[in-house]
Amino acid sequence: MSKKFFITTPIYYVNSVPHIGHAYTTIALDILARYKRQKGAEVHFLTGTDEHGANIEKSAAAKGVSPKEWTDQVSAQYKEMWKELHISYDDFIRTTDPLHEHVVQAIFEKLLAQGDIYKGSYSGKYCLSCEQYYDESEMLEGGLCPVHKRPLTEVHEETYFFKLSKYQDALLKFYAEHPGFLSPKTRAHEIINFVKGGLRDLSVTRTKVKWGVPVPSDPAHTVYVWFDALINYISATGGGTVLCADKTEHREHLKKIGAEKFEDFWPADLHLVGKEIFRFHSVIWPAMLMALGLPLPKKVFAHGWWTVEGEKMSKSLGNVVNPVEIAHKYGVDPVRAFLFREVPFGQDGDFSMLSFKNRYNSDLANNIGNLLSRTLNMAAKNVGDLPQEAGAGTATLARAQELEKAIDGFYNELAFDKVLESVYGFAGELNKLVDEKKPWELAKTDKAAAAAVLLELVCGLRFISAWLEPFMPTVAQEMQRRLAPGKIEKYPPLFPRLDDEAKGK
Ligand code: MSP
Question: Does domain 352-502 have CATH number 1.10.730.10?
Answer without folding.
Answer: yes
